[in-house]
Recover the amino acids of this structure.
């Protein structure tokens, strides 16, 4: 299994993320055991270079973006990709951030970044996943124009659920559209089958609403209560 | 009775033919060898000639759970 987040999940308008500058979010994702997270522009709007660098150092999982730099710096802020292994298969996960003009940051065109990195990742892994906060419309364009991607996990923008690019066969999954006071309610679940060569040969996708029908995990509940005390 | 020149010409033609047959046989042998390697290699690496990226030993069923835009909320209902 992989647990992934497609961005804008570090901070916004609610306690304790706002008061802890995203520290509580990284701690929560460490606790739950995320496998990778992509950086979104909201994260960069509300957190400066120093704080983002601190958050990256606290993460026990890859925080990814192939197209974000601190202003005036050539090097990327974060790792562009991660390679994980599941069932003997090498899986490359490429992170993309939505293009925006933000003080203190330079964000390259995510489509160009995908074109640059995907061919390199195809040499390293049999399965290539793009974890993108570039927005559904941009992600659909990437799916259509950049061959070699097996699936795109998409964030930002209005939810489109599932989409397949007719040009390449690349599938796109998008779980949630947040609103003020309500975020993190929906989890997407992609059930995928790959052959020995890493070709996607079967899929099923569902969306789960985290409501009253789903019982709280007691260990996580205890952690959240303690987190409230920690960052209050 | 054939002349010496005609005999020489036939020898050369036969030699050319033998050379072509030999080269063709070598090519067939090499092609056959590649097919054997591709079919018999259990790790699938023999297919690397025709594809790209490392190959695994078996198929994979993978579940991907994914979230986005959680905004740092610790409670999905707005907390």
């Amino acid at each position: 299994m992989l647990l992934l987040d497609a961005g804008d999940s570090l901070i916004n308008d609610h306690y304790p993320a706002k008061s802890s500058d995203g520290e509580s979010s990284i701690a929560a994702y460490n606790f739950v055991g995320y496998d990778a997270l992509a950086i979104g522009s909201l994260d960069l709007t509300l957190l400066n270079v120093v704080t983002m660098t601190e958050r990256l150092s606290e993460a026990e999982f890859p925080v990814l973006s192939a197209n974000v730099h601190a202003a005036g710096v050539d090097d990327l802020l974060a790792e562009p990709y991660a390679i994980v292994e599941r069932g003997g298969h090498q899986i490359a996960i490429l992170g993309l951030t939505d293009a925006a003009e933000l003080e203190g940051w330079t964000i390259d065109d995510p489509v160009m970044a995908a074109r640059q990195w995907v061919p390199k990742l195809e040499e390293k892994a049999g399965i290539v996943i793009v974890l993108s906060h570039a927005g559904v419309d941009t992600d659909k364009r990437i799916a259509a124009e950049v061959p070699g991607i097996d699936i795109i996990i998409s964030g930002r923008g209005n939810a489109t659920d599932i989409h397949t690019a007719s040009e390449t066969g690349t599938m796109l999954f998008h779980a949630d559209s947040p609103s003020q006071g309500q975020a993190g309610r929906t989890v997407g679940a992609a059930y995928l089958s790959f052959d020995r060569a890493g070709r996607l040969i079967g899929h099923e996708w569902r969306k789960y609403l985290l409501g009253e029908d789903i019982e709280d995990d007691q260990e996580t509940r205890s952690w959240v209560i303690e987190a409230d005390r920690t960052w209050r | 009775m054939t002349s010496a020149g005609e005999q020489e010409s036939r020898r050369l033609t036969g030699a050319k033919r033998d050379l072509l047959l030999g080269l063709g046989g070598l090519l067939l042998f090499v092609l056959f060898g590649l097919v054997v390697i591709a079919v018999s290699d259990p790790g699938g690496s023999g297919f690397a000639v025709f594809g790209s990226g490392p190959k695994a030993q078996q198929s994979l069923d993978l579940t991907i759970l994914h979230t986005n835009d959680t905004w740092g909320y610790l409670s999905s209902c707005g907390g």
Remarks:
- Chain A has a mean pLDDT of 95.
